[in-house]
Design a protein that fits this description.
Blueprint (H helix, E strand, L loop, with lengths): L4 E4 L5 H12 L3 E6 L9 E4 L5 H15 L4 E4 L14 H29 L2 E6 L3 H4 L5 H21 L4 E8 L12 H9 L9 H11 L11 E4 L8
Parallel strand pairs: 1-2, 1-4, 2-3, 4-5, 5-6, 6-7
Protein name: SDR family oxidoreductase
GO molecular function, one term: oxidoreductase activity, acting on the CH-OH group of donors, NAD or NADP as acceptor
Pfam families: adh_short_C2
Length: about 240
């Protein structure tokens, strides 16, 4: 395939950065969004907030001008606001959903017109094992990640006849900055439920995302694919 225009939200660290590097390694033109900090070297950096439509429009405009309409969207940006339900405010819940669920919807809605014109596109949503298992203190986070499956499958049905696929990748316990704050006790609980007995690497998630964006996965859409080392098998 010729070099494609790829956009990875939250692509300045962790899984997002690994995904961006995986696409760049095969010659694709890759843009990454970041809300704070700096863009990693070697990519088109676009500073934006997925909760603000105007900010996203500006980011897409820059990407389209620099590397063409987005062919592959990887909606990875997300936040965590862990609290037990009785201590969780409305803003703790709805604010997180605005980033983790409505944000990917906004990104997909903005990317779809260009994909329709080409009659080809890949929409990829990064979920989490906790979206299916549930987790104490993560009612908001788990709800947002579960919602991505409904979003992707609805888009898969709407857009499939136009050559556009939509899939969900659900990482398990992956060694990233986000999980570095997990307590040793909770870390051991997750590893004890992981069949492979070890945490995953961001690159292992990125390889699956890259596969789903390629021609070898042209007949895969509406799928929920765990990359979890066996954590949550059968769910």
């Amino acid at each position: 395939m010729s070099p494609r225009s790829v956009f990875v939200t939250g692509g300045n660290r962790g899984i997002g950065l690994a995904v961006a590097r995986a696409f760049a390694a095969q010659g694709d033109r890759v843009a990454v969004s970041y809300r704070t900090g700096e863009s990693p070297e070697g990519f088109l950096g676009v500073q934006c907030d997925v909760t603000e439509t105007d900010s996203l429009d500006a980011a897409f405009g820059k990407i389209e001008a620099e590397q063409g309409p987005v062919d592959v969207l990887v909606a990875n940006a997300g936040i965590m606001r862990d609290k037990l339900t009785l201590a969780m405010s409305d803003e703790d819940f709805t604010g997180l959903l605005d980033t983790n669920l409505v944000g990917p919807f906004r990104c997909a809605r903005r990317a779809i017109p260009g994909m329709l014109e080409k009659r080809w596109g890949r929409l990829l949503f990064i979920s989490s094992f906790s979206g299916m298992l549930g987790s104490p203190g993560q009612a908001n986070y788990a709800a947002s990640k579960t919602g991505l499956t409904g979003l992707a499958r609805s888009l898969a049905r709407e857009l499939g006849k136009r050559g556009i696929t939509a899939n969900v990748v659900a990482p398990g316990f992956i060694d990233t900055d986000m999980v570095a704050t997990v307590s040793p006790r909770r870390r051991q609980e997750y590893l004890s439920m992981t069949a492979l007995g070890r945490p995953g690497r961001p690159e292992e998630v990125a390889n699956v995302v890259r596969f789903l964006a390629g021609q070898d996965a042209s007949f895969v859409t509406g799928a929920f694919i765990p990359v979890s080392g066996g954590l949550g098998m059968g769910i």
